[in-house]
Amino acid sequence: MSDIRRLGLDELPLCQQLENDREWSTDEAKWRLMFEAGEVYAIDAADGDGLAGCVVVTRYGDSLADVGMMLVALRYGRQGLGTRLMKHALDAAGDRVVELTATRFGRPVYERLGFRPTGSLTINMGPMKGAAGSSAVRVATADDHAALLDLDAEVTGADRSTALTALLATAERTVVTDGGFAVAWNAGPHRVIGPVVAPSEESARELILAAAHGADRDVRIDLLDAYPGLRSWLTGLGPAEGPAALPTMVHGAHGHPGDRGRYVAPILISMG
Question: Quick one: 51 and 136 in the same domain?
Answer without folding.
Answer: no
